[in-house]
Amino acid sequence: MNSPSAPPIPFFTQASSFDRRWPQISGHLNALFDRGKYSHGRQVVELERMLAAYTGAEHVLAVNSGTDALVLLLRAAGVQRGDEVVVPAFSFAATATSVSLALAKPVFADIDPESYSLDPDSAEAAVTDRTTAIMPTHLFWQMADMTRIGQVAARRDLIMVEDSAESIGMRWDGTHAGLLGKGGVLSFFPTKTLGALGDAGAILTNDPDVAELAGILRHHGRMGRTTDHIAGISNLSGASGTNSKMDDIQACVLMGKLPHLDDDIARRAVLADAYTERLQGVPGVLRLPTLAKREVPADPVYYVYLIEVERRDELVEHLTRQGIGTEVYYPTPLHLQPCFADLGYRRGDFPNAEAACERAVALPFHHDLDEDTVDRVCDVIRTFYAGSRP
């Protein structure tokens, strides 16, 4: 068994990869410092161009976080004050809080236990005469079932936007995540597949009207350099714009890393396969990542490596004592979060989401990881369950 004195294994680090990318990053930073304009300058415009080329989006708007990207996208796509938006009960809080921040009401639905994404049947059952939008979330390594969710949206005349914050590189029958409805978003939080040094995000859309309105909203409701703030108009929920411009320093970091993204994605696939091979058949491991059976081709892009296990919290404590970092996605389903208590949901409403919150844990995973480290993590898990059984 591994000794607690062995080198710690962090859940995430980008130290080595950042060192490798530093020559490209520093070149962009030097150009930025030479110009002396650090907010919403040339580097941001160039990053938007690069992201458009990579994703195929006709419009990319860089903003200061994935959360802001969701809020601005919802508003620009036409979600109004008091509207209902169907979202999954299993996701990061921003999936639902972004709806509240857009002055609308989140309505929860259960997830498909295989993909952890919005279940189309549960989503349709949640639609009322006040529902105007549906927001599938692509989690961990694969997209939601966009064929069936798209059919729900069309059948019920709903706006469809995608919480594609984790999904750079994911494609649905060749179309990049975020571009199957009114638009989607990217998060560049440091742990993401393409991570900045701090918060940063982007809106993706092929709709010119959405792009124009989102661009106005991210800059205090201003169009161009005018001093007139026009974002109080009715189709923007009757609320003013905000300051959500990406810093050029973050754009420089992302420009230095984006050309290597496909290599990083490929490395993550190798590491995911290594984990799966070593954890296959381990007692106590209930579910390993699988690709949901879909009608369209969709290749996985591993943002995290998530498993479901018996006695999850005990395993996490054991791994922590061995110096191995983990992350619980997510300890509490969204419909049971205190901030949504007034919506009246109860335990048992969404059993798939609740089961995942009780059993799911993400293991150390980033493209600087090596397979010897994967071996050590899996050995500790195997030993934990072997020692806990007769």
Automatic annotation (TrEMBL):
Family per similarity comment: Belongs to the DegT/DnrJ/EryC1 family.
Task: Give the positions the UniProt entry annotates as the active site.
Answer: K192
PANTHER family named in the record: 3-OXO-GLUCOSE-6-PHOSPHATE:GLUTAMATE AMINOTRANSFERASE, TRANSAMINASE
| The protein's name | dTDP-4-amino-4,6-dideoxygalactose transaminase
Which of the residues bear the PTM N6-(pyridoxal phosphate)lysine?
Answer: K192
Cross-referenced SUPFAM superfamilies: PLP-dependent transferases (SSF53383)
Kindly list the GO molecular function terms attached to this UniProt entry.
pyridoxal phosphate binding; transaminase activity
UniProt GO BP: polysaccharide biosynthetic process
Keyword vocabulary terms for this entry = Pyridoxal phosphate
Q: Is Nucleus set as a keyword in this record?
A: no
